[in-house]
Amino acid sequence: MSATTVISGSGNAASYGHLCWSYDDPVDFDRRAREFLAEGIAAGERVWFVSTEQPRNATEKMRKVTSLATALDRGTARAVPLASTYGGDTVDPAAQVAVYEAATERALATGHSGLRVVADATSLVRTPARRAAFARYEHLIDRYMRVRPLSAMCGYDRRELGDEAVAELACMHPENNADQALFRLHACDPDEGAAALAGELDKFNLELFSRALDRADLRPVDGELVLSAADLRFIDHHCLTRLRDHAHRLGATAVLRTSRSTAARLVELLALSGIRVEAAR
Amino acid sequence: MRTGAAAGHEGYYHEAVCYRSDAELLAVAVPFLLGGVAAGEPTVVSFGARNEALVRAALPADAPVTFLTGGDMYARPAVAIKAYRQLLAEHVADGARQIRIIGEVPRVALGPTWDWWARYESAINQVYDEFPLWSMCAYDTRITPAPVLSDIMRTHPQVATADGRHVPSDTYTDPTAYLTETRTLPPDPLQWTEPVIELTDPTPAQARHAVYGADRGGLSIDDVEDLVVAVSETVTNALRYGRPPVRLRLWAGEDRITVTVTDGGTGPKDPFAGLVPASNGSSGGLGLWITYQSCGHVALHRGPDSFTVRLTAGNPHFTV
After folding, report:
1. Is the Cβ–Cβ distance between B113 and B316 less than 8 Å?
2. A234 closest CB neighbour out of B221, B222, B228
């Protein structure tokens, strides 16, 4: 990994192997992809490099790393055509999760410790509708990854998609290298809440936050929509209110578990009903 | 039926008491309070410790007068407004025909932070006007600077005197006019030095990170976190409702962090902005109100081509 690259979410409870990697330089992406896959080989995982490239070209790129070349020869590593993994231009979120669930279980059944995937999904998110479906899928597969040994690095070409589109996808990952995505909405342990919320939320990413909540399609439990926010550094009154309203539409009270004192003070100051702030455990 | 000098008056009857001795203060306060007690009106004192003891000693021991701890009530103007409005609403809900309150801002409020208390004194003429309130604001002329006394006369419609009279203030100014005036902003001495951070057109996130970066551990965690909220709201308002360029400057002193946010606009249109939550849905009003609640001091200044908000966390009572 490049020494100068900052990974949002890295080094905390969110480090379970679901990384968004947006890039301007395909060569840099390929290099990072090889590192990511080689880490998987070292950990005893089956690895896939999923792309729109010809398998021969993708294989050649992987062979630049010795351990990957060896794994390719053994069948532990594969270059997989995107079209064979993701059916159609618009992803079917549930069906796509099922594909990876099955592939992960096959990897485990054949003696691997898990499945690790690098997928350049740029071609699958070129329109708003495709992006919406894929963001939904990102959250669903993130839930699976939180509890099963599947890890993935999702590549997005920023030159083609632009910063706003990349932010829509990056914020659905527990880790990303996109500094424009100031917050992250991702899976947490089921007993910790409906999802985890990390980073910073303010008026300038309020609409992005709204879309992320809609796409995650979180389900309240016992009338409460609990967000585990131990890594939330900032949330302003706009986003607190929006979270409250989102939970209200689901017939629930929003519960934000955070160690930051300001969220609780804002809720009290504004006398916001329908949202409760609890100290993070 | 209202009683005393406010009999027949509708809404808020707002008086200043400018006294030169304990005897003069008691000459006004005691009849005011006992009159309220006699009429069965909620009667409240919100003084600092010294004057509270003075008044307590002058009243019958069993007088049903409520004493609030003035230091808490007058921590910040927007906090005082929120707390008083709640108190007044509760008394009215309980059937009060008039509520009497005598209070004083802490002595320290007569210094560098007076500007926001002057705004408070002016704004409450309107903000409390929905309540049958008769209040007296006590100022000791021996320690009150002349410019502050001038503001007191401009923000109080009436003056109660030690000889029992209630006279109109000749210089009383309508709140909307008073609050729209350009006021001189005494510079914090920290501002005479180079700022430790200067940003042009920062995002709110960059502004927040600047505050965290300037924290040397001299302030409480809550003070720093509250300043982060205030700076974020102020920069957001400047970017959304002001005009570019937006400039953030930050100074870090031993006992405080001072931040100015300047844009090329004219500031909020609502004269009451900051003191009450966004009235009539004015843009950015809620953010400025949160800022007023969050900082040790907030000062607003309109220049010829710019609008500046100065935020202070920690001790804002600097000496020049």
Report:
1. yes
2. B228
| Contact in structure between B134 and B8 (CB atoms under 8 Å) | no
Q: Using DSSP bridges, classify how beta strands B66-67 and B256-263 pair: parallel, antiparallel or unpaired.
A: unpaired
What class, spelled out in words, does domain A18-180 have in CATH? alpha beta
Q: What's A190-279's CATH class?
A: alpha beta
Residue B319 forms part of a structural domain: no
Test mutation, B81, B201, B206, B232, chain A, max A CBs within 10 A: B232
User: Do residue A265 and residue B226 have CB atoms under 8 angstroms apart?
Assistant: yes
Q: What are phi and psi of B267, to 5 degrees?
A: 85, 180
Q: Which DSSP state fits A253?
A: E
% of residues, chain B, pLDDT over 70: 97
Residues B13 and B160 in one domain: yes
Fold matches, A18-180 and A190-279:
no
CB pair distance less than 8 Å for A260 and B286: no
Sequence spans of domains, chain A: 18-180, 190-279
| Complex-level ipTM beyond the 0.90 threshold | no
Enumerate the residues of chain A whose CB falls inside 8 A of the CB of residue B221. 261
Q: Which pLDDT tens digit goes with each residue over B210-262? A: 999 998 888 999 999 999 999 999 999 999 999 999 999 999 999 999 999 99
Q: Tell me which of B180, B204, B224 is where a domain ends.
A: B180
| Of A211, A233, A134, A198, residue with least CA distance to B229 | A233
How far does A140 lie from chain B, in Å, by closest CA? 29
Cβ of A182 under 8 Å from any chain B Cβ? Answer: yes
The residue written with tokens 């020869």 in the block is A73
The CATH number that applies at residue B161 is 3.40.50.300
Whether B169 is covered by a domain: the verdict is yes
Distance from CA of B226 to the nearest CA of A (A): 7
Over the Cα atoms of chain B, what is R_g? 21
User: pTM, whole model, 2 decimals?
Assistant: 0.91
